[in-house]
Write a structure and sequence with these properties.
By secondary structure, the chain is mostly helical. The protein is built from 7 helices and 2 strands. It has a two-stranded antiparallel ribbon with strand order 1-2. Helix 4 packs across helix 5. The two termini are about 25 Å apart.
Amino acid sequence: MDSRNHVGFEIRTLSNLIRRHVDNSQTIKYINNLTGMHGWIIGYLYDHQNNDIFQRDFENEFSIRRSTATAILQLMEKKELITRSPVKYDARLKKIILTDKAIEIHEMVAKEIDQMEELLTRGISGEELGTFLKIIKKMKKNIE
C-alpha cells in the first residue's frame, strides 16, 4: 500500500499544513511570545468572565499542580495578560482577571480560528463534514 494512502500519513500532512498556515499568520507573529498554555488559560478566562476564577480553578481545569499553576500565572501577570484582585468575602483568595491586552489577543485568535475553519471546510457539504467528524471521533476513541 502506498504510504500516501495511509490515514495517519494524511492526518499528519494536514496537521503540518495547518500548522504552517497558522505559523505564518499575522496574529501568531503578534503573540509569538505566548505559550500554548497561556492561550488556553486566556480562552478559559474569556469564557468565564462573569465568574470569579481562582488559581485552584486552573489547577482543576487543566489538571496541573499548584506549583505549576503559580509559575504560569506569575509569568502571565508579568506579561500583563492577567491581574489578580482580592475578593471581599475571603482575603486569602485573589480572583484572576484578564487584561485588555489579553482580551484583544483572544479576540484576534478567535477570528483566526474562524478563518481557518472557513478555509478548511470550503467546498465541503454539511453531510460530508458530519461524516468526517464522526469518523475522526471514532479514530480518536480507537486510539484511546
